[in-house]
Amino acid sequence: MRQKLFYKKTNVSNYRNSKINMLESESDTMAISEHIEEFSQRVIFCTGTLVLITILCFTNVRDIVKIFQAPALGVKFLQFAPGEFFFASFKIALFTGLLFSSPIILYQLLLYLIPGLTKTERDIILPVSFGSGILFFCGLLFSYFFLVPAALNFFITYGSEVVEPFWSFDQYFDFIALLMFATGLSFQVPAIQVVLGLLGIVSGKTMLSYWKYVIVICTILAAVITPSTDPITQILMSTALLTLYLGGSGFVILLKKEVI
User: Fold this and answer.
1) Which pLDDT does position 9 carry in this prediction?
2) Which sequence spans correspond to the domains of the chain?
3) DSSP strand E in the chain: where?
């Protein structure tokens, strides 16, 4: 009799455990499907935002073109192939659309990731993401107001007595866009330093101790990042990178002191 009761209890407990496992698997499946649905909705929203802003930029592309042409004083732009300016307008609209929609896309990405993060991870990722966006746009402004004029002035004055500056607008825009985008990415150095410092991988004092090697690395990176080969642009870029690195190291030291 006792043996039968034992078997009954065992069967009941096994049934309950199997039922719980089934419910947990169903809840996991529902959670995964909800995550996929949420992710797809945010992707659709970001894509729609990008398309809408790109269309708005294309409708005002002539005004945007004037902004890109402003640093090239004394240069006449020509169209060397049928439809060159027309296709260049699409690239300009897409480039500016990406720039203006990037904060919205980053915000949607953070909204998707934040619920799955711990408090410590949120305390690191949110400020770093915000600072990274500001640094990127600061890099764009630095490139537009300092690097681009310096590079163009060097190229214009270098052969002014021999050749007349007539440039292809499509190639000119490719040069400007590459330089601005590369500068924006290079301005992410302090953000990377803050992440490494907060995670305890490298301290701020250790970062400062490698300043001699950093000077060499900044010079090499400036030569690789800048599409032009003129020394003025490379000096400006290497100086900016070194300043950002030293500033990031000092900021990591301050953060560690406040945490302590």
Assistant:
1) 46
2) 2-187
3) 76-78, 166-168
Could you tell me the CA-to-CA distances from 9 to 15, 21, 25, 64, 246 in Å, in that order?
10, 18, 24, 77, 69
Q: Which two tokens stand for residue 147?
A: 């690097």
- Reading the block at residue 185, the tokens are 């990415």
Q: How far is CA 95 from the centre of its chain?
A: 13
Query: DSSP letters along 79-134, please?
Result: --STTHHHHHHHHHHHHHHHHHHHHHHHHHHHHHHGGGS-HHHHHHHHHHHHHHHH
Quick one: how far is CA 80 from the chain centroid?
33
Question: Based on the number of CB atoms within 10 Å of its own CB, is 196 exposed (0-12), middle (13-18) or buried (19 or more)?
Answer: middle
What is the C-alpha to C-alpha distance for residues 221 and 96, in angstroms, rounded to an integer?
A: 25
Element (DSSP H or E) covering residue 70? none
The reported pLDDT for the residue numbered 99 is 92
What does the block give as tokens for 72? 């090239």
Low-confidence ranges of the chain (pLDDT < 50): 2-9, 11-12, 15, 19-20, 22-28, 30, 260
